[in-house]
Specification:
two-stranded antiparallel sheet; about 20% strand
């Protein structure tokens, strides 16, 4: 009877362990952005930091929301290898260098596989998101990641987190921005008006430039050549000498 009760108790404990092992409750999420060629993509990720969290990752999850995931806080920075043991859903893995740049991407990992996926280079973080997001949002090597572990993204507790998974273009023409860029300068809309050329020929000036000199309009008249052959002089020069006319 004692042996039977002990056996039943052992089975009960085994069932509890199995249930607790697979009954995974998601941790609170933190905002994470990826700057892609299509704009800024927003995700909400759990943070794995402790040895137990780093070891467990997203194991035993039957599903996670499309724009959720997990970031592994790798410190000190080092090369790292991941696997899919006990992970039941396919993932896209993003290996992130210390400068917050994506250095390697592994798409559509095989669930439950124990094959190692190596970063090759030292990394500061690894991001796991549901498979297909890399292709969906055109995430590429070289894209920048923003998250608090890189000290490049801070979200106040009372600041709303942008909806996950939406590419938000940046710049003054972005949706929700103040509006289009307004050109600067005198010809800009709403400015005083077009540039008014400066100088005597400018519209509204006194008039065209008046040339200076005796031949200028309004001057006394044309220059009168000087000398005996000049108009109005006594007459032409009379050559002198033995061959001069009249000698």
């Amino acid at each position: 009877m004692i042996i039977k009760k002990a056996f039943i108790f052992f089975i009960f404990i085994a069932i509890l362990n199995a249930c607790s092992k697979h009954d995974v409750k998601p941790s609170p999420t933190t905002p994470l952005n990826i700057n892609t060629s299509n704009g800024e993509i927003h995700f909400n990720v759990e943070v794995a930091r402790t040895p137990e969290e780093l070891k467990k990752g997203l194991m035993y999850r039957n599903e996670i929301p499309l724009t959720n995931g997990m970031i592994f806080d790798i410190y000190p920075v080092r090369p790292i290898s991941m696997w899919m043991k006990n992970t039941q859903i396919s993932l896209d893995m993003l290996f992130v260098a210390p400068d917050a740049t994506i250095s390697k991407i592994e798409e559509h990992t095989t669930p439950l596989s124990e094959n190692l996926i190596s970063s090759r280079e030292p990394v500061r973080a690894v991001i796991e998101i549901p498979a297909g997001n890399v292709m969906r949002y055109n995430i590429k090597v070289g894209d920048k990641v923003q998250h608090y572990i890189f000290d490049n993204l801070t979200t106040l507790s009372d600041a709303p987190i942008p909806p996950a998974g939406i590419a938000v273009p940046k710049g003054p023409n972005a949706p929700g921005a103040a509006g289009p860029i307004i050109p600067k300068g005198p010809n800009a809309p709403g400015a005083a008006g077009p540039v008014i050329p400066k100088g005597p020929n400018a519209p509204g000036a006194a008039g065209p430039v008046i040339p200076k000199g005796p031949n200028a309009p309004g001057a006394a008249g044309p220059i009168i050549p000087k000398g005996p052959n000049a108009p109005g002089a006594a007459g032409p020069i009379i050559p002198k000498g033995p061959n001069a006319p009249g000698l």
